[in-house]
Amino acid sequence: DSRIKSANVIQMTEEELGNWKAWKKKVFAKMKKAYRNGEFFMAQSSFDGYIDAMTDANGQPIGRVNYGIDGGETYRFGGKTVETVEEDILPDFGAAEIGDVVAVFTKLSDYAINSNMQMTSVKWIDHDTNEVKNKVIVIADGKLLDPNGTLIIKKKAGTTTASQNLENQPE
Q1: What pLDDT does residue 76 have?
Q2: Would you say residue 60 has pLDDT above 70?
Q3: 16/26 Cα distance (integer angstroms)
């Protein structure tokens, strides 16, 4: 959304993405009070590799995964819900190009869906594959109603990996 202010676009290196102090200074400090009840969206592998792997000085995990009695996983980070998405929606930080969006913080109640509520459905049999196929079409789009609380987190240049650090060490 072009209405998101440049101050709400945050660049993070690989080291910063796995660092609690960097998140507090660069991301949490930019959350306006009225929008703090939003949630994060990121690739599952970004959460697992960077957030869930983050520990404090005592080795305690900072990102939380709670396994409820219903068997479902609930992800939390800094008191905020984390919704994980597939990597075709938001790329994994490690695979992302410099400048790619790798995470978003927003309130879903600030997003509206527009639809004409007309749905068309077609069902047919594909005799070549012996499959029954269904096709459903609906016209819909959406837009942020209030872009002021949305934070966009992008991959910043200057990232290194642990394996690259090891390769550059003298023997």
Answers
A1: 87
A2: yes
A3: 9
Smallest CA-to-CA distance from 115 within 138, 145, 143, 144 is with 138
Q: Residue 165 above 50 pLDDT?
A: no
* The length of the chain, given as a count of residues: 171
pLDDT at 119 over 70: yes
Confidence of residue 58 (pLDDT cuts 50, 70, 90): confident
Place of tokens 């949490």: 28
Q: Is 149 exposed, middle or buried (0-12, 13-18, 19+ CB in 10 A)?
A: buried
Please report which helix (H) or strand (E) contains residue 131, including its range: strand 131-144
Q: Are the beta carbons of 23 and 78 closer than 8 angstroms? A: yes
Distance in angstroms (rounded) separating the CA atoms of residues 3 and 20: 28
Q: Who's near 50: CB < 8 A, 6+ residues apart?
A: 14, 17, 18, 93
In angstroms, rounded to a whole number, what is the distance separating the alpha carbons of residues 151 and 30? Answer: 8
Q: Considering only CA atoms, which of 62, 149, 152 is closest in space to residue 102?
A: 152
Amino acid (one-letter) located at 51: I
